[in-house]
Amino acid sequence: MATRFSMQRRLRMNRPSLRLRSKPPKDRTARGQDFTAANLACALSLQTCTECGKTNYPPREVCESCLNDELLWKPADTSGRLLQAVALHHSLWEFFKRRLKKNTWPIASVRLAVGPVVYAHLALELFDQPGASDIASGSPVAVFSHSDCGNQSVLIAVPDSVDVSDAKNRLEIANRLGLTKAAERETTP
Amino acid sequence: MQSAPSRSTPSSYQGVALCAPVSMGYAKQSPRTAAWFVGSALRAMLKNTGLEKSDIDGFSVSSFSLGADSTIALTQHFGLSPRWLEEAPYGGAAGVVAMRKAARAVQSGDADIVACIGGDAAAHRSFEASAAVFSNFTIDASFPYGAGGPNAAFSIITQAYMQRYGVQREDLGRISVAQRYNANHFPLALLGHKTLSMEQYLSARQIAGPLHLFDCVMPCAGSEAFLVMSEERAQFLELPYCLILAADELHNSHSEDDVQYRGGWTEFVPRMYEQAGIGPGDVDILQTYDDYPAISMLQMEDMGFCDKGEGAAFVRNTDLSFDGSGSEKKKLPHNTSGGQLSVGQAGAAAGLLGIVESIRQLTDCALGQQVPNARIAMASGFGMINYDRGLCSAATLLGRA
User: Does the structure's ipTM exceed the value 0.90?
Assistant: First the structure.
């Protein structure tokens, strides 16, 4: 319940959009907070089952496959296959609403080579396609994590040709997406 | 060694009657809370049937907006003393799930008259708050990515479906446009006062990926309710009723599919037809769960109205209006009240909409859009976008008594 009420409070704070600097959603469950912590130090860290070896995502308490509760956060292979990429034109959250005034917000669903399906922000400008939906389903991509300005780790999808092992590279991409900076209020109300 | 017994088929729902359909309280926004919507639907049902509150000994509630309450809290609120309780907040599948459980309770004597009620509130901007915390997977792994709410997941499902089977926006639009026509004749539909043409559908503003405004339901407040009792009791009370010919459900099926393009119906609907002794061609009215038109198309395919991937061709050649006024030769009245796309989506109450409308149609008490001589209706449910796909699939075949 605590999550729920703080989320409602945040939404109230977030509307009407008077706040000077709005940030991406930062509420996470306890395991979601673990995801953020585990991903601070590497390109991608996911829960790996100590019993059956399955890589699990979204963050959870027990393994989807064998229900074992010992899931260790381990660096995971960043490669994956794009399932679909879409551009959002509408959002429920003030941070994205402000970003959407300038441009659509592209997101993707990706099947990671290690198994799970993930949602990720899409670094569209690194793909040689004009729109998110023009990128062919099945395209090889890399998915890495980065902190956003709400201090939460989020996933970002790029073409597989991009070197995501370099932290500088990752920061640069996150910066260009506008994730690392709060969205500022444009006009004084 | 003996082999393991195979999965059994649900036994017959013979002798169970569905009656007293109620739809009410539809509003884009309301200061009332869920208890008002559930309680008022109960009041309307008692008024319509002449039953007393004390006659209701089974109580099933479907709602996303009960807050700190649950079904049991509502018994004290309403002064009810049921001997059977159920809570089925399963979104689009809530109706079939609640109905199946209530029917078994009646068959086994656990309850005599079960009130199945879906009711949801819609306070100012409450949808945003509930979308943000719909599930733990949503909080951690889908909402932070653009905060598109259900539109984001469904834009991916719709785009994948359109690419896979070569579906055009015009095909999906046929569902929205036909349903709006039906809603124009259904007084409770929140968008029923507006007509919708294909040109309007195609030129609507874009929401997410291939989804445009008229592909999306409008969240609203409202309630849907019906009573489940034995056939003898319904006859004794002289209530018009319909029968359950078959019903089943399956959840989190086909989880290996990259992007959802089918639901659990593929696994159980053939058995339902077998049990009812009919085929899809015998269905006079189809009520699919239409949170997005592609999802309705997917149900038409999975429930055998056409082959997989033929949904677009099917809706091109089929008149989906309630009165058969379209030019197509093949007729299948679909979402005869306008569905959620035109009535509005009242949270988990929307999951009961198809069944409630089917009961009205099969007992000749439709509210202005009666399908003449309908004998068999099919209502299906789909729901709960926990993360990247709808987890619930459910369906029922209902027959005129």
Answer: yes
